[in-house]
Structure formats: structure tokens, C-alpha cells
Write a structure and sequence with these properties.
Layout: E1 15-21, E2 37-41, E3 55-66, E4 70-79, E5 82-86, E6 89-94, E7 101-109, E8 112-123, E9 128-134, E10 141-142, E11 148-149
Antiparallel strand pairs: 1-2, 1-3, 3-8, 3-11, 4-7, 4-9, 5-6, 5-8, 9-10
Amino acid sequence: RLLSPVTTNVVEPGLSSYYIPGDFKQCAEVDLRKATEIDITSTLSLTPFRNKARAFGLVFEGYISTFQDGIHTFSTSSDDGSQLLIDDILVVDNDNKHAAFELTSSVNLARGLHKIQIKYFQAGGNGELRVYMAEPGNTKHEISPGLLFH
């Protein structure tokens, strides 16, 4: 099923980011309403949050721009859990506590803007979050800041 683009007047660069302190075991426990810091970020990175706490949750949300119709492949590489939703559909479910692990899945998107949400939690130890996309006929790459809007 081809997912139609969303209609929005919002076209500011970057994604909204929510930092949620706490000790989590699953992405479902990461609650936006408990965010202590809300910001706009241009990259999907843990760097601004690394020295804040050993255990925390993050949510990035906004829109991703796609340039062609077809199967788009998304991946998250995370230590600990991560989930990626497109248009409120869970596409990549790399949840639960685990060492660095990459999981990939695909979704059929029409050209245009689509809602994107990435949930992540760090449960102590090393942390990693990388988010990749491959558009139809192209190779996988980390999602470029130029594709992200809020």
C-alpha cells in the first residue's frame, strides 16, 4: 500500500527533539509528556545528550521529505532500544535493551512529506543511535539533515 504524503504548512528545517530522563526497558515507556528538554535539531545524534545521564529516553519527530514514489528502506542501529515510525506506522522495531544492533524494514511511500518519529532509550553503558534510509534504486545512507523538517 502506497502511503500518501501529508499536507502541512510546516517547512522549518530540523526535527523536534525531546529529552526524557529515566531508566527505561522499552520505547513505549518513553513519554513525551515527561520531557525536561525540548529543542530543534538538524541531526539524529546522541552527541548533545551523552553527558547528561547514563539512562534517558529521546524522541525525535517531524517530517521527512522523499523525492520519488516507491519502496523506501529504513534502518536503525542502536544500543539500546529504538523504533522508527512513518506516518504513525511502526516501520523499524529495534526495541528492548541490547548491545549495538541494526534492524531494517521497508515501507511504500509516495513522493512528498511524511511524518517521522524516532524513539530511543539508553539504559546505561555505551549508547548508539544511527538512522538510515535508502530510497528506491539508491544505497543506504544516514538520513541527511536536509530531508528533515518540523
